[in-house]
Amino acid sequence: MKQEKRETWQSRKSDTTRIAVLEAATQCYIKIGYANTTVTKIAEEAQLSRGAMMYHFDDVQAIIVASVGYLTEKRLEEYEALLVKAERQAGGRVTEESLEMTINALWKFFHSRYHIAYQELIVAARTDESIAKVMHPAQQEFDKRIAEHIRSHFPAWQGVEEVRETITELYFYALQGVSFFSLSTNKQPKIKRLFSLLVKTALNEYADATADIKEAN
Amino acid sequence: MKQEKRETWQSRKSDTTRIAVLEAATQCYIKIGYANTTVTKIAEEAQLSRGAMMYHFDDVQAIIVASVGYLTEKRLEEYEALLVKAERQAGGRVTEESLEMTINALWKFFHSRYHIAYQELIVAARTDESIAKVMHPAQQEFDKRIAEHIRSHFPAWQGVEEVRETITELYFYALQGVSFFSLSTNKQPKIKRLFSLLVKTALNEYADATADIKEAN
DNA sequence: TAGATAAAATACAATAATGTTTGTTTTAAT
DNA sequence: ATTAAAACAAACATTATTGTATTTTATCTA
């Protein structure tokens, strides 16, 4: 009994309102944090009455749960935009410059609006079953899409998938760590040194892995 | 007009109650998250009336702010216990085994009770000025103590401080990233691969740096 | 032992947050 | 033009949360 959804005036209006609410929620997570976010504040931010909001979402949980999907999507868009741009500038080769660009793009990603907001939900998910329940599959989907993206945009690593994956993980974890730590300290960590090491590590691993392949032939 | 604090019955009782409250707060951060923690829940967890609690702390903020100091201290204890133990088993050398032990100790640290609780406050500090105000100096103090600890317990890196620092940062950021990501996914990342790479990287950097020094002589 | 003080519990008041109900406006369909 | 339904707004009731004031209990000291 799947309802045919026509493109009516209402459905369009409803969609824009829903998005306005989710954007408002995002803004609340960013500005006042998940812990201080309330339906009232979200409604204010969306310039909407609470009643109107609750017409589109049953309760608070519904908004939060919808936020997970919304932010996952937005985050993916942001990631792809940033990394496609970096990749375009860098060309397809595995060089110091291209790796630096990749790292800088990742850096931007981990400091972007949507990721900051998502971080709040990640933390909330640890102790909130209903968030975790939607976040885990969403994160899996996200990982899958990222993996696809890397596969198709970094063809130089073809044949050394294992190494590529490990380097990818290292880069993600390290930058997530930097981004997170920067929340608790004022001092700028010596990012450049760290980035150089990350570049160097990738170059080494890549050289080793491709040498192994040539050797095998 | 500094009041001389004698070791009276009251002062002892007061101290144990304060600690009970801070432990209860910690437990709340861990079990229900910072966002859902209330004074009522903390009092329940501490098996204390709210009135009694508010006798020791002026308001919620006071408890949270005190938590930062308490957790910083506890976290440092935990860190030192774990890494001294690892270092003792590993001996003073820079080997694959010793680095693996160090990483495993760090892994445990980043998954420990107190660190998990502290993570909640790190996130809260981003949007709460009063928390950030005490957290930033606390974190600086923590970093300083860690640096001292590493200096005195990893003498093999003497003369290559720059590399040691960079590796330390890499290790901290990467493991913090892993710990944080594990909140949003069920899937165990391929930790072993990553750890191997971290070990390899440190060994390479160490070898390079010490070779440079010998060469210079 | 009586009075003073610290610690803890209880009771009270004010506010904030949520969810629900009811009412109003706007668009779509007949 | 009238009716139905969607979108939104406003008002209400309930509960949760905080902070404060008051009371009780326990310990110390003169």
Distance between the termini of chain A: 58 Å
Give the SSE order of chain A as H and E letters.
HHHHHHHHH
Name the helicity range of chain A: over 70%
Main β sheet profile of chain A: none
Instruction: Let me know the average pLDDT of chain A.
Output: 93
The number of E-state strands of chain A comes to: 0
Task: Explain the overall architecture.
2 copies of one chain form a homodimer. Chain A is mainly α and 217 residues long. In chain A, 79% of the residues lie in helices and 0% in strands. Chain A contains 9 helices and no strands. Chain A has helices spanning 9-32, 39-45, 50-56, 60-90, 96-110, 113-127, 129-153, 161-181, 191-216. In chain A, helix 4 crosses helix 6 and helix 8 packs antiparallel against helix 9 (191-216). The radius of gyration of chain A is 21 Å and the shape is elongated. Chains A and B meet through helix 6, helix 7, helix 8 and helix 9 of A and helix 6, helix 7, helix 8 and helix 9 of B. Chain B binds a DNA duplex (30 and 30 nucleotides) through helix 1 and helix 3.
